[in-house]
Amino acid sequence: MRKNAILNAREIELLARREEITPAELRAGLESGQITVVRNRGGRPLAIGAGCYVKVNANIGTSPARPEVKAELEKLRAVEAAGADAVMDLSTGGDLARVRREIMAASRIPVGSVPVYGAMVNAVRKYKAVQKMSAEALWEQIEAEAAGGVAFMTVHTGVSERIVRGLADGERLINIVSRGGSLLACWIAANRRENPLLEDFGRLVKIAARYGTALSLGDGLRPGAVADSTDRFQIEELLTLGRQAAEARRAGVPVLIEGPGHIPLHQVEMNVKLAKQVCHGAPLYLLGPLVTDFAPGYDHIVSAIGGALAAMAGADFLCYVTPSEHLGLPGVKEVREGVYTARIAAHAADLARGKPGALERDLRISSARRDRDWAGQKRWALNPEKVAEAVGTESDFCSMCGEFCSMRFSEKLSPAKRKRKNG
Amino acid sequence: MRKNAILNAREIELLARREEITPAELRAGLESGQITVVRNRGGRPLAIGAGCYVKVNANIGTSPARPEVKAELEKLRAVEAAGADAVMDLSTGGDLARVRREIMAASRIPVGSVPVYGAMVNAVRKYKAVQKMSAEALWEQIEAEAAGGVAFMTVHTGVSERIVRGLADGERLINIVSRGGSLLACWIAANRRENPLLEDFGRLVKIAARYGTALSLGDGLRPGAVADSTDRFQIEELLTLGRQAAEARRAGVPVLIEGPGHIPLHQVEMNVKLAKQVCHGAPLYLLGPLVTDFAPGYDHIVSAIGGALAAMAGADFLCYVTPSEHLGLPGVKEVREGVYTARIAAHAADLARGKPGALERDLRISSARRDRDWAGQKRWALNPEKVAEAVGTESDFCSMCGEFCSMRFSEKLSPAKRKRKNG
Lengths: 423, 423
Hints:
Two copies of one chain form a homodimer.
Chain A: H1 9-19, H2 23-32, E1 35-38, E2 46-49, E3 55-60, H3 69-82, E4 86-89, H4 96-106, E5 111-113, H5 115-127, H6 135-147, E6 152-155, H7 161-167, H8 179-191, H9 196-199, H10 201-211, E7 214-217, H11 232-250, E8 255-259, H12 265-278, E9 284-287, H13 299-313, E10 317-319, H14 332-352, H15 356-370, H16 374-380, H17 384-389, H18 406-411, H19 417-421
Parallel strand pairs in A: 3-4, 3-10, 4-5, 5-6, 6-7, 7-8, 8-9, 9-10
Antiparallel strand pairs in A: 1-2
């Protein structure tokens, strides 16, 4: 069987060109574990990590209340069209294996999964209780999803019995907001057993190595409220992930490190640098960070603030947050806005990190804006539809300033400029 | 005549309490010029500056294509309801004096204006050319608006003949994006004369002192593309503003300093600190900063990213940017979203700066979220409507995770917590 993540020389060259790094830099990053390539079996590779463009992931998936795969395939098309680099199937409703297969078959971008969901859903269906899941059933689920060719999988390998006991002290405002994390924690508490994924991390590494699946080491203890940010549970889990990242790397298994969570603005940079340090520079994959808890309905914006700052500080992969976060399952409109918003954060960080293609794009759209070239603005806009919808696209100025257009007034101040800058 | 900005002891006390600083701190800030109080004649005062909560301004105003005051009054109500702290009337269409009077009469929050607009619109109506405006007409307009009782006015006092000559070199991608700045620059270029507001800054200070109007020293040279960020024109103007801020302070006239503009993420903190340093700690009033040019339709989000980072670094007053920025005049829906989005940036910075009321609010909404208390979430949400619209508000979990609710699972891990944390 061909492993997902092995690249030939031609692929290395193409991938390096896409990331605007040299093939040697890409090879060095893969070697050191600072770049992780994820790909579906038979699919296109995606490079995530040091020196690469910041990437965006979109979560889709059924829920018990909305188990239809059709709606999720529609979301898949929407997030691909909006420019998501990867997608995760977080389904918990309907026939999970079928949903995953259909998403894998339809997706042109790498697909990630969270096997603990499938194992837990099965346990609930069979025994009416998550804690009755057998450890072996979890391993079987992991192997089945890896064998199914997913590009990467989230595994909550840092949720330890020790942390779960510690939570009983009641220090946290909200104990656990990670779904997989909370399910595993309940299992640990009910069975008075260590997390199988932590206890036998080597088995996980072997499965990942066998199928070429990247391991995304999940942050089951990510803070779910800014009051819980950077607490001992979060950091203790991170230390475990760091140790596991090193172990996986020794076995040649590429990893991603999942990061927090709800983090106030002044702790974002520190958290990113800490995670990078503790995890030996492994690519950092963030959900958020959400820099405040108080804006349900706007959490895509809240996370774009945190995500931009985090990516400037070194985070590599941003999981989108949609306007539905904390409120309900997103629809097509929400997933689309989620992707566009996360792409703003990623692009702002790429600009800050000096990626040449990012600045080029800003130069192009600003030149078009200066020239009141609406077709050009549409061409280079994040979401061309927004320009197309705008009023006044036929005129030499827009309805905001009307005839008092600063662009029109001030271009006369340096007549030679246009030739020089827009060549 | 009672000056707008003079506060009695009772007002000082109330204002300090609102800002969660001591009356002594407020007095010291007013004395040093690091806090500026703005108020309409007869209206409530608003403190902006060091140690205070970050404030949000909303721009409204007619345009030549949409001259009706009624629509602007509707926007005024919308931005007040969404929580704007101040509003600026940027009208350029219809009967400007009447529009301003009606907005002043209806507004419960401080109103700012930009007198150069009125002067320029009059010149265009009278002579069909902005450059034919007489300097005296500009001074009359300024005095009329100050006498009308506006709380603060933007004056582009740093747009110098020297800078306008410099722009002819064509270094900038977009010369000027400030409307007032571009109008003044054209006037300067056409008349080969210095900017009257710069040349006779003392006269401006005298008018402001007479009526108790705060001066918002405008950034006519703010970069309008990230490629132009932190260039010599922007910084040269800033140096002038710093000198003028000191002069105004010597005369007891409170100032605000208007900041950039389009600034890439990695230059935001530096720009804020530079402006604060050069302007002797005067309150910094930002439009944006927009951290990329490439997202028309999403510029409220783009500016929230920059605004949050800037306010964390010390900016005091954020001018909202609406989703219509770069595309057209915003409607009611856009101004509302603009305010909410700017408030996210302000609040995220308040959290980062340790303002007690900000953290309290996050604690309250997160406690409600943990407890699936939808009424509580609605009460503490930035925009309660967003919670009200959400699905599943009657149930013990939401449609995102359904029965696999991490809150519900994980609360069992520490049964004593609720009493301790949500008292």
